[in-house]
């Protein structure tokens, strides 16, 4: 069948036609080549014969020349034949030139001709010399004989050259004759083959064309039958043009199916435009598809519902360009569509059922795969007495590998007595047998040892089919948790007792309040809440009304309003009120609670001591306020009343010093100097006390401060002392920070003044630098509220002090030197400390006698 299909295929004949054409061209080209080579071989043979002929002519001329000259010599008459000899020479040159042309393609013959040309010259010369002999002599002289011999030698060599050339030409002639004969044989044969093949191709083509004609007639008849009986609507349209634009299509051919589906007569629609007979093609872009198929030579497929004679039908069409028109094959698929709808509905139902089954199956598979339980299926093995003696493992899930380490595939179809022999001894085998025989599920717990680890399993055995399904759950953790739970329960009892004691100590009671109940009943009240009310546990029913009986009458309205607001807004509860306990003591309670669904849960604490403490604190604050007012009054007195006598004392001292100082004795002068010094010290002390008392912190006083500018200003204020002391001040990398400007001036003024006062006599220096540190990088102990700090260091190389006094020097009126050594009030560093504390910072000092001091200030960055 396959061979017949191949033979009957038109593609085969197309291939054969192409092959035959190629073969004809190939044979024709070979024949042409044969004829060309045949002609070339004939020309070569002719050429060889011409060369031989010319050689014979040339040497014939040489022989004639020799014969003529010898004949003249014998007749002793050279004059008569001189002109004849010249003619021979001309003929020889002409023949030699012709021969030169003929053998131009043969280098060997060219060599011979070159030598022959030289011998010709010698021959002519020798023959001419013979003609010059005396006319009368009785015999030839030796010279004449020598000349005659020379001619003989030349002629002999010429004949030898002639033989060489003739031999070479004979060889060429032989070769060329063989080539000529071969071409003479094959050329007619190839022409004959070409003619035969051409005749064969003609006959085969004729037979095929005639067969195709007959087949086409049969196919046309068959196609007409198919067209008449097909269920497809087959129409052929040709375009209708108007000004080179397709405006419609004319129906050229339509099969009888149009009458069935469209209910029209074919003879009535042939030759009419489709817009008239099938108006539905003008809808939904179908006409554009027709035009596109014709213009762009593309195939379109359409599936749509159309209205024909008031009836809706489904058409499925293929639009294909064909020749000068388009072929439209349409099929009425209304029945199929309706069947498909029904089939789809049924298929959806089947798909739903299949999906449910698949989902159930996948669910079961996933459950089996994802479960931590070992699931196995065993079938019993009976002996001849129909008694169960063992079980065969037919299935077990992957969890078995995590439990026992066994590969589930390796233990399949093995007996449990071989795989798990301990089941035969610990009573599990008997449970399996009981499940089979009594057909009832059994649940049991057992402990096993796998890989040296003791495990507890809770197993459930149920008969399934001919065997049993065993589901085992590892409850080792549960068993351990039970043990731990017992321990935790014991701990909880202890903790509950501790918590109970803590509630008692903290005076806290808890409650749970169901807000949906009409009576707003407190679901639970802790024992300690009863105790706080002066009652025994469960002395009264925990209702809201019973609890409100203990609330102080003056606070009841406040209590109810707070609760009402919390209930309405569902917000947390936190307020304080007074209660009157059972033993008539007034206590302050604080109730805190939060809503969880419909319950208000919270605690109530006895805050009586805190309220009384707050009252005491309020009284202390009032006392402190009065103290501050008194201190402020003192500041006013110190700033005016205390300084006024000092100013007058200093004024009178200055007047006495101007007028009567010289009249005093030396001892009086010494007393006078001490009075002046003490009054000045008193003035400074009052001034610093005022400065210390007025140092405070207000957010509105803080500004952005550049420390470099602050210290430069301080240097200007201390310019005289700096120049007198010869001290050098070095600043490096000082920051800008948020601070109170005048307090920063006072801080660094005091520190620089101290460094100048306690300077070293040799090359005194003050170094001020800064470094930014994170809070975690600071090792010094103080409360750190900021994430980072500036550490500002003021170092000098002065006299220093013992490190044991590092904290003492920041206290009021604490001095390390006597007045006769270094003047001062002992307040300057206390002011520095208070300023730093105002800025939420810290100050400390490090020193060693004779090696200078270092004051380190931490300020928030």
Report what the structure shows.
This is histidine kinase. Residues 637-861 form the Histidine kinase domain. It comes from Cellulophaga tyrosinoxydans. The chain is of the alpha+beta class. It folds into 6 domains: 4-200, Four Helix Bundle (Hemerythrin (Met), subunit A) (Up-down Bundle); 230-332, PAS domain (Beta-Lactamase, 2-Layer Sandwich); 371-474, PAS domain (Beta-Lactamase, 2-Layer Sandwich), CATH 3.30.450; 507-606, PAS domain (Beta-Lactamase, 2-Layer Sandwich), CATH 3.30.450; 607-694; 698-860, Histidine kinase-like ATPase, C-terminal domain (Heat Shock Protein 90, 2-Layer Sandwich), CATH 3.30.565. It is 55% helix and 21% strand. It is built from 23 helices and 22 strands. Strands 2-1-5-4-3 form a 5-stranded antiparallel sheet, with helices on both faces. The protein has a 5-stranded antiparallel sheet with strand order 7-6-10-9-8, sandwiched between helices. It is extended. The two termini are 100 Å apart. Residues 518-522 have low confidence and may be disordered.
Relative strand content: 15-25%
Label the CATH architecture of the largest domain: Up-down Bundle
List the uncertain runs.
518-522
The whole-number mean of residue pLDDT values reads 77
Span of the ends, CA to CA:
100 Å
Question: Order of strands side by side in the largest beta sheet?
Answer: 2-1-5-4-3
CATH class category of the largest domain: Mainly Alpha
Query: What is the number of E strands?
Result: 22
Number of helical regions: 23
Using the CA coordinates, give the radius of gyration.
Answer: 70 Å
Main beta sheet:
5 strands, antiparallel
CATH topology of the largest domain: Four Helix Bundle (Hemerythrin (Met), subunit A)
The helix content is 55-70%
**Number of domain modules:** 6
Shape: extended
Structural class, please? alpha+beta
Domain Histidine kinase: 637-861
Transmembrane segments: 12-32, 183-207
Coiled coil: 340-367
Protein name: histidine kinase
